Structures
1.
Amino acid sequence: MATDRFVKRRNGVLRKLKAVGADALLVTNFTNVTYLTGFSGDDSFLLVSRTATVLISDGRYETQIADECPGLDVHIRPQKIGIVAAAAKIAARAKIANLGFESNSTTVDESEGLRTALKSAELVPVSGLVEELRLCKDASEVAALREAVTQAEKGFEVLKATLRGEQTELQVAHDLEHSMRSFGATGSSFAPIVAVGAHAALPHATPRRVLISDADFVLVDWGADGPTGYKSDLTRVLVTGKISAKLEKIYRVVLNAQLAGIRNVRPGARCCDVDAAARKVIEDAGFGKKFNHGLGHGLGLDIHEGPRLNSMTEMELKPGMVVTVEPGIYLPGWGGVRIEDDVLVTKDGHDVLTSSPKKFDEIVLS
Amino acid sequence: MATDRFVKRRNGVLRKLKAVGADALLVTNFTNVTYLTGFSGDDSFLLVSRTATVLISDGRYETQIADECPGLDVHIRPQKIGIVAAAAKIAARAKIANLGFESNSTTVDESEGLRTALKSAELVPVSGLVEELRLCKDASEVAALREAVTQAEKGFEVLKATLRGEQTELQVAHDLEHSMRSFGATGSSFAPIVAVGAHAALPHATPRRVLISDADFVLVDWGADGPTGYKSDLTRVLVTGKISAKLEKIYRVVLNAQLAGIRNVRPGARCCDVDAAARKVIEDAGFGKKFNHGLGHGLGLDIHEGPRLNSMTEMELKPGMVVTVEPGIYLPGWGGVRIEDDVLVTKDGHDVLTSSPKKFDEIVLS
C-alpha cells in the first residue's frame, strides 16, 4: 500500500519521541506534515502519538486530504476556530500528558496559544526531530528526486537547443521554467539563476534584462519542483561566444574539484572532509579565496536541507542522503564558474542522479 | 528620495513601540523587513530603534542590499555566526534595554536563542505591529499594486486570445504565468486556478490534465507578483461552449452580489457589513448556503493579509486599504462561479483597480 511509507515515517517519530520525554509530537512545519502524511497542501498541523494520529486542517482541503491521505484521521476545524485552538482540542481529547511541539517552526504566539488552551498537558519543545528523519531518503523519495532531475535536465536540453544571443537572461530563465513544466514539473524548485559574464560572479545572481550575447558564457543554476514536492538543483556553464583560455582553465579546475568532491561521497565520510577534498583542488590551483561558500547541501522536499557539506559540519554521510556537490570559482568583474550535481549516498559509495554533460567540449555551444 | 517612504514606515514602528513598552523592535518576518527597507531578499532581520536601524544579513546579499537600500546600516554576519546570535550582538551594541520581537513570526527556538545570547535586555513579545502598519497602503504601494494588476490583466488577455479546447487546465495555467512574466511580473502571485465545469465548484481547485473542451465554461483565479513584491488577485469565468440558462442565471446573481459588495467599500464601513451586503444578494436568490467562504481579503506584499472581509470582522475600512471582493456560488457536481476584483478604499469611497470585462456577454468566448 502506498500509505505504508507514511506509517513507517510516523513510527520513526514515535521512536525518537521516547528519548525526549514526550508522548506526542505536534508537527507545525508544513513540509514535515507533507513528509509524514503525503498531504501536499499547507495550513495544516499533524498530531502524532501512539494512540492517535490526526491531521488538523480546514474546509478548503477536505477533498484533497481524502484523495491524498486515504485512511488518515482528519479533523476539519470550523472557520471560527484557529488552527492552534483546534490542535489543543485534539491533543486534550487524546489525553496527551507531555506534548512535544516543533520549537524550530512553532512561533512564540502559537506556543503561548497552546499553553493557554491546553492546561492538561506539559509542553515539551522538540527541535529538528522530523528534519533528522528526513536526512535519509527512502526508495520512493529517491524515485521522486530522480523524476525532478529528469524534468530539470529535459528543460535544460530545450534551453540549449533554443538559446539565442538576442534573448535576455530573464527570458531564458522564464522559458526554462516553462519547459520544465511541459515535462511535468509543477515549477522551478527556486528562482533560476541565468547570468552572463561578470554577473556570474555573484553566487545568487538575479536574471536581468541583459542579452545572452553580451558575454561569451552563461551560468545557469536551476532545478525542478516535482509533482510530489521533491526538488532537483543543478548548475551548468555554457560557452556561447569566444572560447577563452582563462575560462577553460578555471572551468577545468572547478570540474576537477567537483569530481574530487563526488569521489569522496560515501557512507562514513564526514561532510567537512568531502568539502575539503573539493576545496583542496581549487586551493592547489591558487583560487582558494575565490571559492567563498560551502560545497553543497542536502535536498529533498526542501531545496536546502541537511546535511550541509561545508568546513564546519562533522556529520557522517549515510546511505540515502542526497547532497548537491557544487564548487565554484568567482572572479569579480570577470565572472564565475560553478558546476553542480545531485548525489545519492549508497551503501557502498554514491550514485550521481544528474547527468547533464559537463566536459569542457560538451558545454561549448558556439 | 526613494528611501523616504521606508524611513516614514520605520518612524511608524517607533511610534507604535512606545505603546507596548519596548525601545526597539527586532523584525524577523522577511516580508515585514521588505516593507520597512525595500530589501527584496530573505534570511535577514531588521532592528529598529530610535538610536539605531540595522539590517542583519549575510554575504550572499551584500551587493543587493547596497543596491536596494542605499544609506541603510547593514551588518553582514560571518558564516559561522547564526542570524539570531548576530541580531543579539547588534541589539547589545545598541544598548537596547527592552527589546520587542515579532512573536507572531519568531520561532520558540529563535526567542530562546535571543534570551540566551542577550542577557542585557528584557524581551517583549510584540504581535502584528508591522502588519497593522501595512493595512493602509501609501501611494508607492498603490502604484505597485496597479502594476501587478496590469500584468495580470495583460496575461489574461493573452489567455483569452489563445484559449483552445485542446489545451488542458494545466497548460492554460502554465501559459498564463509565462504571459504575465512577459509583461514584467516575476511570476504568479499564487498557483493559478484553472478549472472547467464541476471542478470549478472547489474554491481551491488545482489545475489538472483535463481538456478545456470537456466543459462549457472555465473559472480562472490568478494574479501577478509584481517586480517589487506587490500582488494582484482576480477571478473570471469564461464561457467556452454552450451558453446555459443556469450558468447565466448564477453568473448574474454572483455579479450583482459582487457589485453590491464593491458599492459598500468606503471609509468607515465595517468589514462584516461589506460581506453582508454581497451575501444578501446571494441569499435572496436562494443560494446562501452555496457561498461558503468570506467575501474577500486584503492584499499587498502578501497575497492574503488584513483586513478580512467576512462575517466576523468588525474592523472599519480606512483609506489606503486594498481588498479583494470575490463572492461565489458553488454547486457540487455542476460547477462554480466566482468573480473577483481588487478594490482600493479611497477618501470618499473606492477605486476598483482591476478592469477585466465581467458583463455576461463579455465573458462568452464561444
2.
Amino acid sequence: MACGEFELIARYFNRVTSSRRDVEKGIGDDCALLNLPEKQTLAISTDTLVEGVHFLRDIHPADLGYKALAVNLSDLAAMGADPAWLTLALTLPEVDESWLQAFSDSLFELLNYYNMQLIGGDTTRGPLSMTLGIHGMVPVGKALRRSGARPGDWIYVTGTLGDSAAGLALLQHHQRIADPAVHEALIKRHLRPMPRILQGQALRALASSAIDISDGLISDLGHVLQASRCGARVNLEALPLSAVLRDHFEHEQVMRWALSGGEDYELCFTVPEVNRGALDVALGHLGVPYTCVGQILPEADGFTLLENGKPASASFQGYDHFVKK
Amino acid sequence: MACGEFELIARYFNRVTSSRRDVEKGIGDDCALLNLPEKQTLAISTDTLVEGVHFLRDIHPADLGYKALAVNLSDLAAMGADPAWLTLALTLPEVDESWLQAFSDSLFELLNYYNMQLIGGDTTRGPLSMTLGIHGMVPVGKALRRSGARPGDWIYVTGTLGDSAAGLALLQHHQRIADPAVHEALIKRHLRPMPRILQGQALRALASSAIDISDGLISDLGHVLQASRCGARVNLEALPLSAVLRDHFEHEQVMRWALSGGEDYELCFTVPEVNRGALDVALGHLGVPYTCVGQILPEADGFTLLENGKPASASFQGYDHFVKK
C-alpha cells in the first residue's frame, strides 16, 4: 500500500482513550514497552482468522471486529487470566474506510469493556486476514491448565452448547427460522460469543483444569484428558441445550452440534468434589448457567459417552473421528 | 486443513530443545505462561510478512525462516532489548514437508542462537503469509526510544547502507554480477540481514534514541526526528557504503539505495557529545563498523542533506517524497 494509505489505516487504530498504567509505551516505537505487576504471570495467546476459513465472506465488519477479539479473550478466560494488551496484524485487500470504521469501532468497544489496550500491530496489503496477539495476567501459580484434571473430578461446562453451530448453519445455508427473535438469537451466538472472562477468574482457586470450547466438547475435553492423562464419562442427557435449539431442530442434529459443532467459546472445566460447594458460591451470581456433564475417570477407562446411564448409540460414539477443524 | 495436517505441521514447530527458565508453560495450552524477571520491562513487537509483498515468491524456505525472525529481532535491537519469546502464526496454502523442514530448521537455528523459545502459534490454510510476535526484555528505564534525540547529538549508523536494496534489485531483475563472491555478498545482505542485538544492548546507556533501518535512512531517521521534535543534518559523503556497492553500481543509484532502499536492518542512533568516547569503548570490539553521518538540529532547522558541506542536489533532496513502502 502507499505510504498515505498506511497512515490512513493507522488513524483508525491509534486511538488510545486512556492508557493503562502498565503500558510504558504503546503504539509508535519499534516495540511497545510494558511493565508486569509483581507476582503476576504473563499469559500469551495468538490466533489467526482468514476470510473464508474462519469467517464468512459476507460477515459485517462490526461482527468481525468483535469476534476476532472475543475468540482470543476466550483463550485468556480458559487460563483464568485478566485481559491486558492486544497486538493486531491486519492484512487488507484494499482501504475501505467504512469497513475500517465499523471494524475498529467494534474492536475498540470490546477492548474498552475489558480495559485492554492496543499496543501495536502491522498493516499489510493482501487477502483479508488478521492475527491477534493477546496478553493477560494471572496471579503467580493460579493459572488454569489443561493438565490438572484428576479421576473423580466433576466435569462442567458454562452456558449452553451447540447454538453457535446452529447459527453458522443458518448463515451458511441462508435459512431462516420463522420467529425472528429465535433466528437472531442463534446468529448472535455465532457472531457475538461472550468470552467467559469472569468465570475463568472465579475458577482460579476452584477448578483443577479448564479449556475453552472452540472445536466442540468432545475435541476440547479430549485435549484436557490427553494433557491430564485421564479418561472421562460424559452424560449426554446432561448437556446444557438452549430451548431455541431443542425446539427448532432434530434431536440428533442438536446433539451433533453440542458435541462437536464448535465455536461455542464456553468453558469446560473440572472441579474436585471438595470444591463443589464453593463453586456454587463463586459462579452462582455471575448470571451464566454452569452444568455438570460428567466425571473424570482413570486413563484406562477411556472416554465414553453415556445416554441415561447406557453407552450412547454408535452414531455419537464415533464423533471423535469427525471432529471438525 | 484436516486435523491430521495440523498435527503434522505442529511437529515441525513443537521442538523445545531446552526450556527457558522464564517459560512456565510453552506450547500446548490455551495460552503460554511466562514470568518476567524483576526490574525488567517487556518489549513486544509484531510483523506480518506476505508472499509477493515482503518476500519474493521464489525465496528459499530456509532464507524465509531466517529473515522472518531476523526482521523482528531488529525491532528488539532498536529498543536495546534482550530476545526472549516468539509466537508464530503461519498461513500455508498446502502442507509441503520439505518446505516445512527447511523453514523450521532455519527458524530454530536462529531462535537457538539467541536463546529464544517459541511459545505458541497458530497454523491456518490460505495464501502464504506469517505474523511473528516477538517478546524481549530490557532493564527498567533503559529502553532506547525514538523520542530521545536532542539538538547537538551525533547521528550514527551501524554497518553499511544500501546493500540489501542492491541484492533485492539483483534478485528482482535476475541480474548477475560477474564476480560470484560479490554477487552472493549482496544477495546475502538482502536475505540474511544480521539483527544488531549486541549493538542495541551496548547502546542502552549511551544513545539518546535509536531505530532500525527497515524503510531507508531518510524515512527511519525521519521517524526519530518526528518523535523527538528535532531537525537534522546528514552528510552524504559520510554514508557508510560497502566496497562492493561502490565498485559495481553508479554513484547516484548507490546513494538512492543507501538513503531510501530499505531492509538494511542496521541501527540508526543518536549519541550526546559527552558519550562519544564511551561509544567507542562499547561498540569498538563488536566487529561491526559504526559511522557518524550527521547531527541533530533544532526542529526549526528542518531535515537537510549536505554533500561536502553544501545542500545536496535536488534529486537527493526530494527523496523523502519517494519513500518506499
